[in-house]
Amino acid sequence: MVSKRNSPGGAMTSPDPGWTDPECPVARTLDLVGDRWSLLVIRDAMDGARSFTEFQRRTGIARNILTDRLRKLTAHGLLVQRAAPSGRRQEYALTDAGRDLFPVVVTLRQWGERHAFAPGEAHSTLLDRNGAVVPELVPTSADGTVLDAENTQVHKLR
User: Fold this and answer.
1) What is the domain extent for residue 42?
2) Could you tell me if residue 141 is inside a domain?
3) Among 9, 16, 108, 117, which lies 20 to 30 A Cα-Cα from 87?
4) Are the C-beta atoms of 42 and 101 separated by less than 8 Å?
5) What percent of the chain has a predicted confidence (pLDDT) above 70?
6) pLDDT at 88 over 90
7) pLDDT above 90 as % of the chain
8) Which residues is 93 bridged to in the sheet?
9) Burial of 77 (0-12, 13-18, 19+ CB in 10 A)
10) What are the tens digits of pLDDT across the range 106-141?
11) Is residue 135 part of a domain?
């Protein structure tokens, strides 16, 4: 799926005929990063991976699939390719749009900690720079009310 961008943040300029659901932000996001490998590449970039070799080692992804995902994430403005400090190779770095996925990755991690492991099963933990476990991300309204599917609604534009 190829989309034009017109702003530094990577905003789409016109509807792409390939969107799953052109008016839904969730569907568009999933079209961009909703496959297993794309989010794992983003996760590893957030954790310091920069080279093709690092991404492959960390994820175990096949070379052809990794090449495709890196190309897609770069084309959609989530990663940028640049010369590595050595100048001999290329590396990948997150853009602002890629870094904006951090709360998404944290929320997926926290959901997984609650629902994807058996009680007592070992798993990695996300810590802040002081070594404390990152607190649960919970959406709240302007008045501090915890938001969920019961007290929110989607407003469709007409």
Assistant:
1) 25-99
2) no
3) 9
4) yes
5) 89
6) no
7) 80
8) 80
9) buried
10) 999 999 999 999 999 999 999 999 999 999 999 999
11) no
Segment 57-66, tens digit of pLDDT: 999 999 999 9
Between residues 10 and 54, the one the model is more confident about? 54
Q: 59 to each of 11, 14, 150, how far by Cα in Å?
A: 29, 34, 36
Query: According to DSSP H, which parts of the chain are helical?
Result: 25-33, 36-46, 52-59, 63-75, 96-99, 102-115
- 127: its two tokens: 């810590």
Tokens of 54: 């690092």
Q: Is residue 79 part of a domain?
A: yes
Domain count, the chain: 1
List of long-range contacts for 91-99, beta carbons under 8 Å, 24+ apart: 91/50, 91/51, 92/45, 92/49, 92/50, 92/51, 92/52, 92/55, 93/45, 93/50, 94/42, 94/45, 94/46, 95/10, 96/8, 96/9, 96/10, 97/9, 97/10, 98/42, 98/45, 98/73, 99/46
pTM for this model (two decimals) = 0.83
CATH number of the domain bearing residue 58: 1.10.10.10
